[in-house]
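Re: that backbone. Tokens:
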């Protein structure tokens, strides 16, 4: 038996329970991992509360898709991994099928990456999802090039920070959007060329001012909802507004007609477009590993909680006070 976080009903952080569960043996294409650290993601908060893009199909349910640990056992039809290897688990599966919030967990081998030497468990649980998300959106989907302007809202999230670092590595200009001034200086220190405080400034007007009226080639929106129309005003002709989150929880209008049908590309995106495609995943992993070796990429960790305080970790995520990644250690 192993301590495992599950919930028996959807709801707030208080529904999370730490229970003794048999993790079982790995089946074909699976491994069992002794988990050392877990990356907490916004998607897990939404899934737990019944507001995720995928519904909870059975209860009790587990959680978690990003972790670092050591392989304990390998199932049939697994190549390239063996017991004793340090690995990271990346989001490449449904929460309805697997969960990493546990001392020991079954994971599909297709969701594993070998953990590079020098990358500890906390970094190994915190670094991959943000950079894989940013790379996929900016390079594989967006085709971002040097000289482009990239506007990133929710910029102090782990994905937002990875997007700032990735834009900088590509030679693009990252413009961070944050709600208050509290995180402004830290965003500049993380590489933002400009920081727009949305509670004090008109985001679209400020972007147009910064770009000489041209607008940004890319706007990355993690919030969605009614504000998408204003963000669309900041997009250059032929540019892209990419929705990679829906933190607002509100209906999201299509802004094109209200704005007079500009040459606007509007697209949704999740990291699964990368992690569930072996060819794209190979390129993404190589890009992120290169950035780690060069020192351009790193895990930005906000707080570390023990597994026993998983509910508090979720409450901290919901507070939106974090700067970077929330990690749980086992």
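Recovered sequence:
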């Amino acid at each position: 038996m192993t301590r495992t976080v599950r919930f028996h009903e959807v709801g707030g952080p208080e529904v999370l329970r730490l229970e003794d569960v048999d993790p079982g043996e790995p089946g074909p294409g699976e491994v069992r991992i002794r988990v050392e650290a877990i990356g907490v993601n916004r998607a897990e908060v939404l899934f737990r509360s019944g507001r995720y893009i995928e519904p909870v199909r059975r209860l009790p349910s587990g959680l978690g898709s990003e972790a670092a640990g050591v392989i304990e056992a390998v199932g049939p039809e697994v190549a390239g991994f063996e017991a004793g290897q340090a690995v990271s688990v990346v989001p490449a599966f449904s929460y309805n099928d697997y969960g990493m919030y546990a001392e020991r967990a079954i994971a599909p081998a297709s969701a594993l990456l070998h953990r590079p030497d020098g990358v500890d468990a906390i970094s190994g649980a915190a670094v991959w999802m943000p950079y894989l998300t940013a790379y996929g959106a900016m390079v594989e989907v967006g085709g971002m090039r040097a000289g482009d302007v990239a506007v990133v809202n929710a910029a102090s999230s782990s994905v937002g920070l990875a997007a700032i670092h990735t834009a900088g590595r590509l030679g693009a200009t990252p413009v961070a959007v944050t709600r208050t001034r509290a995180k402004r200086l830290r965003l500049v220190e993380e590489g933002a060329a400009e920081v727009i405080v949305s509670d004090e400034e008109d985001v679209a007007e400020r972007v147009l001012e910064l770009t000489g009226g041209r607008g940004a080639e890319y706007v990355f929106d993690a919030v969605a909802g009614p504000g998408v129309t204003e963000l669309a005003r900041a997009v250059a002709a032929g540019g892209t507004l990419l929705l990679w989150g829906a933190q607002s929880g509100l209906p999201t209008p299509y802004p094109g007609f209200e704005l007079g049908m500009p040459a606007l590309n509007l697209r949704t995106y999740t990291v699964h477009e990368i992690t569930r495609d072996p060819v794209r995943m190979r390129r993404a992993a190589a890009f992120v590993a290169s950035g780690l070796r060069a020192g351009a990429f790193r895990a930005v960790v906000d707080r570390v909680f023990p597994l026993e305080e998983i509910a508090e970790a979720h409450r901290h995520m919901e507070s939106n006070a974090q700067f970077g990644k929330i990690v749980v250690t086992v």
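The mean pLDDT is 96. The chain has ten helices and 15 strands.
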